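Figure 2 data, in text form.
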Amino acid sequence: MQLSAESTSRFVQAGDVRIHYHEAGEGPVLLAIHGGAPGAYGWGNFGQNLAALSQHFRVVIVDLPGYGKSDKPAIATGRYGFYADVFENMLTALGIDRCHIVGLATGGAAGLMMALRRPELIERLIVVAPPVGPSLFAAAPTEGAKHIMGYYGGTGPSREKMQRYLETIIFDKSRITDELIDDRHRVSIDPDFMATAHEGHARSTPVEPIWQRLSEVETETLIIWGRENRVIGFDVGLFMLAQMKRAQLNVYGRTGLWAPWEQTARFNRDVIGFLSADI
């Protein structure tokens, strides 16, 4: 049976938050957490990886609280801790005692927070360009961050703004299709999403300084970065590698922020290899 967003769609009550997710496959659980940006959602970030990864794992692709079809609660405390709480409750509700995690950008930060707070829940961790360290070389805010922060400002969200944002996160611009732009733009202008979006506004939202605690992470971790990432430079990955006791770093050339999509086959091989290998 061909896997689709519709056929794999599920909901679960995780404490006070109803979470939407996609599930397929059997075996060790792999929780996939997407990045936070205008128009982001679980299937949009990891749907293209599901067929290959579900041959080896029980893959659970979530919509972050506030994104996709998940509830959109107000978050007054640190976001990464809030996400960790929700996903810990989600694992309990699904009867999952232990899992692997793969997280993109904000999703990687949430995974790191879970590894810090509840390491017994996490078997191995894969993070793709998480925003958890200072850049040594890139001026702040980066080009990509400016596109994100200004998305809802000025004249408001638009298809043109979404196209410019996608052009900063994807190295090979020939792969940016009208369908991709339209999908991300459509999701970004959902009224409920716009009312609670944590990225896309000039206002700051509270996040915890995880970079100060990277040395405390004991979980075996694979760090993946695109060399041409114009949102979070790969030197942050080098900083993480220097701080973390049990980490390795893979840098993909000719790749921007969205490595699971731009380098789907290589990313899938790296994920399967890392999670299956004896370490």
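Caption note: Strands lie at 9-14, 17-24, 29-33, 58-62, 99-104, 122-128, 220-226, 247-252.
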